[in-house]
Amino acid sequence: MYEKNGDKYFIVDAHVHLWDARARNLRNIHGKQFIDCFYDYHRNLSPEEQVWDYETYCYYGPERLMRDLFEDGPADHAIFQATILKDFYINGFAQVDKSLELCRSNPDKLTYNHAYDPRDGEEGLEQLRRDAESMHLQGVKLYTAEWHGDSRGYKLDDPWSRRYLEECINLGIKNVHVHKGPTIRPLDRDAFDVADIDKVATDYLDLNFIVEHVGLPRLEDFCWIATQESNVYGGLAVAIPFIHTRPRYFAQIIGELMYWIGEDKILFASDYALWTPQWLVERFVDFQIPEDMSEYAPLTVNQKKKILGLNAAALYPNIKVPDELQIPTDAADPGAEVAAGAKDAVNA
């Protein structure tokens, strides 16, 4: 729990990783390009005192993760979002077994979301069924720009992808997190295009689609889609660090999100270890829309409480929020009015 000025915040970091990008795990040059690009994001968007050395960044291990999130950090709960990248890393980028061990040892603090690739066809479907049972999956993380043999990405509305989404419904996997946003070397920008969210969100109302990175740099496309689809959410990973280097740009991002989709559809995420959550939470709690950006309504304490944890907790029933920290949120209500933020802006 994080506390400031007498206000208490239940923090859910909805997007964290435990990765291994050491040289011995690289399958080829593309694994090196990928982690180097991650490190550039980390180095260029973090406060100077928060920048790690490169070797630590490539592998930090489970103990450091627990310390940064829960001991030195403010998180009450965190959700792993697995990124496999088997074409780039010998044993995968995400450390699945160690992440699962942490979750089993700390069920009150950690939730694990696994990944699948619909280009694996029937064999992958069988694996998804086994994983759903053994990992008790409530969510998955999809990476539509991931390379797979000679394929450089897929669309969520591809026939095989639809079969996997339908299987998620059958298996009780409710939350589908999708990286739709900044490109990462060597992956292709257009393979992260947010447009296919529009189709599947309409067709699969039993699923929640959490668009990680709010579609950046296609924020406007994302907002126009999410304001029409009540089962589409915005994850702030990669967007929120701009609170440090480009605070007015972040004000524009959060202002647009509040206008279009409202306070119940936005989820905090650090994308650890891209960034650590402590400074992000501190900056966000202290943040306010600049007075001269009057087209956006000021952020309230209760809105920040929802974004920092209560909305994510509403999507994951295993995350228990103490009664004294609860405030009403429509995050899990499929009939919620998604453009509610516009009213606040008009009335401000």
TrEMBL record:
Residues annotated as domain Amidohydrolase-related: 12-317
Signal peptide feature range: none
Recorded GO MF terms: hydrolase activity
SUPFAM superfamilies given in the database record: Metallo-dependent hydrolases (SSF51556)
One Pfam family cited in the UniProt record for this chain: Amidohydro_2
Domain of life: Bacteria
Name this polypeptide is given: Amidohydrolase-related domain-containing protein
